[in-house]
Model the fold of this input.
Amino acid sequence: MIEVKSELRSALIAARAKAQIDEPDAGEALVHSAAQILSRIVTPIVAGYIPFKTEIDPRPLMRALAARGASLCLPRTPPKGQSSDGLTFHLCDPDNLDHLEKSGWGVMEPKTHLPEVRPNVVLVPLLGFDHFGNRLGQGQGHYDRTLEALRATGTVLAVGVAFAAQEVAHIPIEPHDQRLDWIITPTKAYPIPTLGGIE
Done:
């Protein structure tokens, strides 16, 4: 399974890099394709992320949600050597550089003094996804552990955000892998009907 996922990651890294070049306005397009979900979310706490390398930029979608009354937060990754821990989320303006610092993983994240919160909507970055809501990440398991913990304590909507080119027919999964509730790409958005997605 590790070898299969590794080969798939290599192909998807290339596909995502090409999509980022071909679709420079993909982040803004997310807002239009997500109109259905935007209209149904009422004043949530939304966790987004600062795009790393070729990840699709969720900040236009985060701003649109904030304009509808959402509070925004960003994840902090556990220090290297403590990778078995999940993410923590802190209230943060993703456009305010004074709120951000670079983690040991090279990811921009909120500073430690910002208030910690529990999001009820999580915008999830990924390398690949399938129509069943399965997701392939970077391999550290941060989001899988975090979504499992959040789901154990209440309702949370896990929304995968990606370029359409990151979709594959089948993502190989393991027991610890957490599925998504929604998928949003620059061209469409849809719930995963067998999970907790908005019907």
In short: Helices lie at 2-22, 26-33, 35-38, 59-67, 142-153. DSSP finds five helices and twelve strands in the chain. Residues 129 and 167 are 5 Å apart (CA to CA). The first strand starts at residue 45 and ends at 47.
